[in-house]
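Progress against Task 2.4 (sequence-to-structure conversion) is shown through the following example record, which the project officer requested during the mid-term review.
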Amino acid sequence: MRRPLAVVAGCLLCASPALALDMPARKAGLWELKMSFDNGAIPGQTMRQCIDAATDKLMKSNFGGPPQQSCGKQEVSRSGAALIVDSVCSFGGTTSTTHSVITGSFDSAYTMEVTTKRRGGPPVPGMAPGGEIHMTVAAKWLGPCAAGQRPGDMIMSNGMKMNILDLKKLGGMRRPHR
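Structure tokens generated for the chain above:
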């Protein structure tokens, strides 16, 4: 299970320039994010995130932090109701060109279509060298966070649980207590 999680994390990092820019804040509460990949070589993944204004902002800055510093191009524009984000970033010997189209509402549900082309760097499972990957993130607000959850909690579909605040302090992940 660790390999698919690493791939998903890598894909999120490729999409991170879109998350790090001046994106609207999401409504506080529990969000479900379903990630799917069009090539079938990478399994889809679902995660739930409990957020408040502070942890939403922290998640955007952490997932878009260091790579964002190496982005030679970052452009955000609107096309009708869609938010368009284009970026070219270099980090770890890899150059990623990302095009994202975000539609919907950050209060209820939004979809992010991300196409990333990579050059250089280590191979990514499910992606041909010099190829591209297309990821769709369908996000839906589920309501208030569940009892026992705290802002920053992220729960993966395999049960792995982490909190952005703990990761910032410890750099670790933990399984949920059942």
